[in-house]
Write a structure and sequence with these properties.
The structure is a single chain. The protein contains twelve helices and 26 strands. Helices cover 23% and strands 25% of the residues. With 694 residues, it is of the alpha+beta class. The chain has a seven-stranded antiparallel beta sheet.
């Protein structure tokens, strides 16, 4: 689509009761980022209350009809996704604005390939809109969903705001708080109550739309004064204002959060047990699990029951699959006819909204067992015949873009289309962690249920440990690298690269759930890169260099966390490069860094980065503490930053046992983040605040 164009969604697909909007961008360094926000507007073009402003502190709005799904890696970087249950959007809402903002003085001109995509409930892409000309702005309205004559339409907007998130939100009626600096303290389970309902708004009158509005022309729209945009219909939108003069900085402002939610206590309460041998009673016991079949049955029942009882959790897991925001019921071991041999999927999820049913069949695997293509194919056929919407597979494996876990045959003669989706157990754990430790749920009982679910899934007997096997090619590839017999084009090297990518994605999920921050793999790829071709290229590099490389961007840190697994030396290196642009003499700057790392491990390696020469002097923290001048360049070269590194022996086994490779990667990342990265002060950290105006 082009800027200013609009289109009716029903003209594009029959499955637009629920849609997913993705906002994406890329950068040369892979480090650029932005925050997504959604505003629900009434007929006057304003939010009814602050609860209609959906952003990182309030990820669900409109009675669950709008939900931020977070970021997902793509071939070009990452994409922020938002789920819209259009059938459930409150009737008072006439328009939904989708925007994004940058913080800390950053502008959208520093990012490439700004784009919006819109997909229907089956995952089929319907709309793609590339945003141009957003160079000097810190907030952008990408597009709008709006009602006309009972139908939802989409308009490609691409309007920029130099005043940032705070200016955008204020123009649409969001109450900006000038006094509060930090998010509300997380409350204790025993003290928090359910969130207060939003203030009701009267039913507004809606403007008439001209009959026969053609696709490609945008109807008259109320546009904020600061925004710039195209002409719409024959009515001109206010012309772009003159360039704003830089305003004096003022304290950062953040929109008020609308609801107080329940999260876990900051510290664990002292146990009343006589001694450590006493085990707490658990809602979901794991001690009796002995076989894979028992693990699959128990895990399916546990997860589906919590999804039905904790609306926030159930909605979080199904919103991206096109499920509506309605009443959810879940079932296990349901028998469905299929020729001469009935099939029994592990579970069924049904969501009812306004008399309409959304149904998904669930196939579960635990303990590293692979999905069986014939089983999944049978469930796809059953779902198509019975008019169900989706089949969801749930296993320890991680799906990769361009590399499906199961190949299924789609009968094009059938009018009804069934979507195939995949969840990893690591994603389920991540969503539960985010809700009860960081974002909050409706009441203490829901928080307790999620805590019991987490305890079950993370127990060694559950079989729900996420990706835990580097595959059959791992040992042959390592041996081939050792004896220099591994050649480029070897399919085994490609299998190792794919499993390495799965492991890195799981590390991001686990670390992000523990920290409550966005953790994503950094993609330094060309625009439009084929993910399969990229993996083939990385496999050739593995054969030539014998190393696996990955980079993680952790929200709030001053650099990118790099992981290198050298299969020739058997060493893991975790490192981060931090810029150093502070004033002062070189020795003073080095001393400041050493003081910041007072609690870091003595074996931490520190390298000086110098302008135009790469690396300079280096040494261990143990040696540099008494002699910091040892890493000051002797030739007077300009210091541009420092590289901090820790080294660890790499596990030999392909699995996640104590001596396994996967366990060693987890331990290396955890140690480096806790003992090094956590002590580094991030410049211009947003602290959950909107960007200052100007």
């Amino acid at each position: 689509m082009v800027k200013g164009a609009n289109v009716g969604l029903t003209a594009l697909s029959e499955n637009v009761g629920s849609v997913v909007v993705g906002l994406g961008w890329s950068s040369a360094t892979g480090e650029g980022d932005a925050d997504v926000s959604v505003l629900l507007l009434d007929g006057d073009g304003k939010v009814r209350s602050d609860g209609d402003f959906c952003f990182y502190n309030n990820p669900v709005a409109g009675n669950g009809s709008v939900q931020l799904l977070g970021k997902t890696p793509t071939a070009d970087g990452s994409e922020d996704r938002i789920s819209f249950d259009l059938d459930a959007v409150p009737q008072e809402i006439d328009k939904v604005v989708v925007a994004a903002s940058r913080y800390g003085g950053s502008r959208f001109g520093e990012l490439d390939d700004l784009r919006l995509t819109l997909a229907d409930s089956t995952g089929d892409g319907l709309v793609r809109f590339a945003v141009d000309g957003a160079d000097e702005v810190s907030a952008v309205i990408f597009g709008e969903l709006y009602r006309r004559s009972g139908e939802w339409k989409f308009r490609a907007v691409g309007q920029g705001y130099a005043s940032g998130l705070a200016g955008l939100a204020t123009d649409y009626g969001v109450d900006i708080d000038d006094t509060e600096e930090d998010a509300p303290e997380q409350a204790d389970l025993a003290e928090d109550g359910p969130p207060q309902p939003d203030r009701p708004a009267p039913e507004p009158s809606r403007p008439e739309e001209p009959v026969g509005e053609p696709v490609g022309e945008a109807p008259v729209s109320r546009v904020p004064a600061q925004a710039t945009g195209p002409r719409v219909d024959d009515t001109p939108v206010p012309a772009p204002p003159a360039p704003e003069q830089p305003a004096a900085p003022r304290p950062a402002r953040r929109p008020r959060t609308a609801k107080k939610k329940v999260t876990l206590p900051r510290t664990t309460r002292k146990s009343l047990a006589d001694n450590e041998s006493w085990r707490a009673a658990r809602l979901f016991p794991v001690s009796a699990l002995k076989s894979d079949r028992e693990r699959e049955t128990r895990a399916t029942s546990v997860v589906l029951s919590v999804m039905a009882q904790v609306p926030e959790f159930g909605r979080r897991l199904t919103a991206g699959f096109g499920a509506p925001a309605g009443r959810m019921e879940t079932y296990t071991e349901v028998t469905l006819p299929h020729g001469e041999s009935p099939r029994r999927p592990d579970g069924v999820v049904r969501v009812e909204r306004a008399g309409k049913l959304w149904t998904a069949l669930v196939e579960t695997k635990t303990n590293g067992n692979a999905l069986k293509p014939d089983q999944v194919q049978a469930y796809m056929d059953i779902a198509a015949r019975r008019g169900y919407e989706a089949v969801i597979t749930l296993s320890n494996d991680v799906a990769l873009e361009g590399s499906p876990l199961v190949d299924v045959r789609i009968d094009g003669r059938r009018k009804h289309k069934v979507a195939l989706w995949h969840l990893s157990w690591a994603e389920v754990v991540h969503q539960a962690q985010m809700l009860i430790r960081h974002e909050g749920v409706g009441n203490a009982a829901h928080a307790w249920l999620l805590q019991e679910l987490l305890h079950y899934l993370q127990h060694e007997n559950s079989g729900c440990h996420g990706f835990q096997n580097m595959g059959a090619a791992w040992v042959p590839v390592r041996r081939g690298i050792d004896d220099e017999t591994l050649c480029q084009g070897d399919a085994r090297a490609l299998e190792v690269i794919e499993n390495w990518e799965r492991l890195v994605r799981q590390v991001c999920l686990r670390l992000g759930g523990e920290l409550g921050q966005k953790v994503l793999p950094v993609r330094r790829t060309r625009r439009g890169s084929d993910p399969r071709a990229l993996r083939t290229e990385l496999a050739d590099h593995l054969c030539e260099q014998g190393r696996l490389n990955a980079e993680l961007r952790i929200e709030g840190t001053p650099g990118v966390l790099a992981i290198t697994a050298d299969l020739r030396t058997g060493k893991l290196r975790t490192s981060i490069e931090i810029p150093d642009a502070e004033p002062g003499y070189p020795l003073s700057r080095v001393k400041r860094l050493i003081r910041r790392l007072s609690d870091a491990p003595a074996d931490l390696h520190i390298e000086t980065l110098v302008d135009g020469q790469g690396t300079g002097p280096r040494g261990t923290l143990e040696r540099l503490r008494p002699e910091p001048a040892d890493i000051v360049p002797k030739d007077g070269a300009q210091i541009t930053g420092f590289r901090l590194s820790l080294f660890k022996s790499m596990g030999n086994g392909r699995g996640s046992a104590e001596t396994g490779f996967i366990r060693s990667v987890d331990q290396a990342v955890d140690r480096f983040h806790a003992q090094v990265v956590a002590h580094l002060e991030a410049p211009a950290r947003r602290s959950r605040s909107a960007e200052p105006t100007g």
